[in-house]
Amino acid sequence: MRILLSNHSSYPGAPGELELVRVLREQAAAGLDLVTDGQLGADDAIAPLMARLDGVRLGAATTLPGLPGAFRQPIVQAKLRRHGALCVDAYRRAAAHTAQPVKVVLTGPHTLAHAAAIATTAYRSADALADELSVILAQEVGALVAAGAAAIQIDEPVVLARPQDIRRLRALLEPIYDAASGRAQLVVATFGADAGPLYAQLNSLPADVIALDCAGREALCEAIADTGAGKPLALGLIDGTSPTLEKAAALAHRLEGLLHRYAHATVYLQPACGLRRLTADQARAKIGLLALLRDRVAGLHR
Q1: Cβ atoms within 10 A of the Cβ of 93, count?
Q2: pTM for this one?
Q3: What are phi and psi of 95, to 5 degrees?
């Protein structure tokens, strides 16, 4: 079995090219096979993406069940328009500074739609808004693939708080998966809650890899250990919200259990969520654990 290391999404740092270079170098130095641009300067995963679309203004900070942390709520006041690429330039800047593949992270249509307030007759419901966002994100994925992106992650944490929407999420992700068209690896990620009750359904989503928050999620870990995986997994073993550094021996024991019935040729190890809430020193220590874990278990799963 090939064990690869990845960053989940964010990484602590300020906006600017020098900070971008530092963030990319620290991830590469830790041995990560797949890095991100760290989402530098973004205080949350909702507002920056939505603010790039015409028809949106940003309101006050708020929270949403299923979405960790506060975010500035997008207020949709007209039909959405994407007049150009949303994050292709950011991808190109990052890719120019590293030899490692850069994973682009986008918040998905279901989560974005339920995080937004609708103040227009253009969309009658969050479902209608999610349909529009699915089309827009599919266009963005197509542009990213054309720019050379090899991996794209779609974050959909809100579905864990709305499990009745899992079929709806599957339909929303289909156009995005089609846009990747086998030229880029599409990762679908949930985090912030225990995905155990939805684990079987998550394996049926249109994706090449399912990324899961396993840090302290006992029901999910039991489901993976007992049943294996329908699709390759990215296992989020390290808690990106806590500065406390986990014990390598305990994580290795947990990983051995998770891989007991795992039959795919590749598995990813990564933080359970973004690292933006940590200091740079804490983040380095967290991602440094990933290589240690790989070294401890790789010989048993070749």
Answers
A1: 15
A2: 0.96
A3: -60, -30
Sign of CA dihedral 276, 113, 188, 164: positive
Please tell me the predicted confidence (pLDDT) of residue 300: 52
Tokens matching residue 37: 């641009």
- Please compute Rg for the chain using Cα positions: 18
| Residue 158 DSSP class | G
CATH class of 2-300: alpha beta
d(CA 34, CA 103): 6
| Strands of 209-213's sheet in order across | 2-5, 266-271, 233-238, 209-213, 185-189, 151-155, 103-107
The pLDDT, as a whole number, for residue 179 is: 97
Burial state string for 22-40 with b = 16 or more CB within 10 A and e = fewer than 16: bbbebbeebebbbbbbbbb
**Domain extent listing, the chain:** 2-300
Q: What is the average pLDDT score of the chain?
A: 95
Q: What is the pLDDT of residue 296?
A: 86
Question: What torsion, rounded to 10 degrees, do the Cα atoms 187, 28, 280, 86 define?
Answer: -40
Q: Tell me: the pLDDT tens digits for 186-228?
A: 999 999 999 999 999 999 999 999 999 999 999 999 999 999 9
State yes or no: pLDDT of 51 exceeds 90: yes
| Tokens standing for residue 202 | 């998550």
